[in-house]
Amino acid sequence: MVNLPEPGRRVVVRYILPTGQATDALGELLSADAATVVVDGKRGVERIPRGAIIAAKEVPPPPAPRRPREAPSTPAG
User: CA–CA separation, 26 vs 48, rounded Å?
Assistant: First the structure.
């Protein structure tokens, strides 16, 4: 069984889809019990069966958004 941090932490959870492909859920860990792990990420709330999880870990917060670069000014003329 994979160890998870406390709910409220940002995590990445790698799990196997029914097709056999692996995918990741990245976001806030909402809850985890013996049967299901719930992660709220960019794709929405994902409910992941514990048996499908192959790896999980806490990750740092996302980087701050970049400021848009200002367009170069053109001389009036």
Answer: 12
SS3 at position 34:
coil
Amino acid 18 reads P
Q: Which of 19, 20, 42, 39 is nearest to 30 (CA)?
A: 39
Report in angstroms the alpha-carbon separations of 36 from 8, 39, 58.
16, 10, 17
SS3 55: strand
SS3 state at 26: strand
Q: Is the dihedral of CA 24, 28, 32, 38 positive or negative?
A: negative
pLDDT tens across 61-77, in order? 888 888 888 766 666 65
- State residue 40 phi and psi, 5-degree precision: -105, 110
The pTM score is 0.79
